[in-house]
UniProtKB/TrEMBL annotation:
GO terms for cellular component: cytoplasm. GO terms for biological process: 'de novo' L-methionine biosynthetic process; homocysteine biosynthetic process; transsulfuration. Its EC number is 2.5.1.-. GO terms for molecular function: carbon-sulfur lyase activity; pyridoxal phosphate binding; transferase activity, transferring alkyl or aryl (other than methyl) groups. This is O-succinylhomoserine sulfhydrylase. Homotetramer. SUPFAM superfamilies: PLP-dependent transferases. The modification N6-(pyridoxal phosphate)lysine is found at residue 218.
Length: 403
């Protein structure tokens, strides 16, 4: 059985709904006609003849060559992700950071310049601020909500704008279309890390983004099992920038992890809708509690960028940030008193998780840098899971009662 016997059954033109794509998109069946996606746990492939191998290497014949380049299970995951994102092409990666690093490095050369929003996931900040300059690519960090700063940062050699929205951990929402317009006027591409919004909450490509990256480790797996990531872009971007970089530097996604991600995508809509509904309810609950200084939730009318949220997001998302009285001591008391919500720097899990950014994910920053980002010592970040929201509210009330 050395060839794929049947292909995707979601035909273009039928415009299937998102939930249908999440279950069926990109599925390819082997000759055995298996129901669930097959796990092709192999590194290499064999050829019927030396001529066939030559033709495949020359690109004259289709087919798989080596799992660092492509693998049937990874290919299904990539096709499904491209379909739900509305992108032409996708490449699976070993982690979210492999996706971010490959998406940037593949298109940058010494002498280029990057503009990025300052409020970034810690490892993304390392890549932008520490790693790229080592290879002759300086960057300018801006306050992402201030469009004038994006404009002012542009240089003739600016090639890439990079941002996350909502931001981590302060959940600021950046105006994708406005920033994409500034990037394109400057002849630069906009790369968006869309983890916090999830693929259901926001389609950056509909708002001008050229490249979208995910840590699939988060909501796409959604059950705390595997690392993975994905880069979504046009066929042209993959052909001219990403393809060779990806093949020869090896950030590839393992077939096993791709298979877990495929199964995760089947339930993504159910999980994320439930998480967002619970998050919206819990954000409202928290805002009325004693001991709370501030609640930041993109779905609330009091969010500083509520108008941008309405324009570009389908919902407020599964993440909440809140600040408690008493600074670090207060935040630690609350986190330590929680029984259902676990202390973890991860997010997007079925289990609700709480993080104290100032001492964990953003510990590396100076106090001044944290202050500039609005990360106070009393701030906690919540990733809402799939528990009964009433239990989560009781847990948070228990935490706040410890103050
Ligand atoms: C987790 C995360 C990443 C990195 O993903 P990994 O899978 O852990 O490598 C990048 N960006 C954001 C916004 C994240 O939350």
């Amino acid at each position: 059985m050395n060839r794929i016997a049947s292909a995707t059954h979601v035909a273009p033109g039928e415009a299937p709904g998102l939930e249908t794509l999440l279950v069926h998109g990109g599925t390819t069946r082997s000759g055995f006609g298996e129901t669930s996606e097959a796990l092709f746990l192999n590194s290499g492939f064999v050829y019927d003849s030396a001529e066939a191998a030559e033709a495949r290497f020359k690109g004259e014949a289709g087919g798989f060559i080596y799992s660092r380049y492509a693998n049937p299970t990874v290919d299904m995951f990539e096709k499904r992700m491209a379909m739900i994102e509305g992108a032409e092409a996708a490449r699976g990666t070993a982690s979210g950071m492999a996706a971010v690093t490959a998406a940037l490095l593949c298109q940058l050369r010494a002498g280029d310049h990057v503009v990025a929003s300052r409020a970034l996931f810690g490892s993304c900040l390392y890549v932008i601020e520490d790693l790229l300059p080592r290879y002759g690519v300086p960057c300018t960090l801006v306050d992402g909500t201030d469009l004038a700063q994006w404009k002012a940062a542009v240089r003739p050699e600016t090639k890439v704008f990079f941002l996350e929205t909502p931001t981590n951990p302060t959940l600021e929402v950046l105006d994708l279309q406005a920033i994409a317009d500034i990037a394109h006027d400057a002849g630069a591409r906009l790369v968006v890390d869309n983890v916090f919004a999830t693929p259901l909450g926001q389609r950056p490509m509909h708002h001008g983004a050229d490249v979208v990256v995910y840590s699939a480790t988060k909501h796409i797996d959604g059950q705390g099992r595997c690392l993975g990531g994905v880069i979504l872009a046009s066929e042209e971007f993959v052909a001219t920038e990403l393809k060779d970089f990806y093949r020869h530097t090896g950030p590839s996604l393992s077939p096993f992890n791709a298979w877990v991600m495929l199964k995760g995508l089947e339930t993504l809509a159910l999980r994320v809708e439930r998480q967002c509904a619970s998050a919206a309810r819990i954000a409202d609950f928290l805002s009325g509690q004693p001991g709370i200084v501030r609640v930041i939730y993109p779905g609330r009318d009091d969010h500083p960028q509520a108008d941008v949220v309405r324009r570009q997001m389908a919902f407020g998302g599964p993440m909440i940030a809140f600040e408690v009285e008493g600074g670090k001591t207060g935040a630690f008391k609350v986190a330590n008193a929680l029984q259902i919500i676990k202390i973890s720097n991860n997010l997007g899990d079925a289990k609700s998780l709480v993080t104290h950014p100032a001492t964990t994910t953003h510990q590396r920053l100076t106090p001044e840098a944290r202050a500039a980002l609005g990360i106070t010592d009393g701030m906690l970040r919540l990733s809402i899971g799939l528990e009964d929201p009433r239990d989560l509210e009781r847990d948070l009330a228990r935490g706040l009662a410890s103050l």
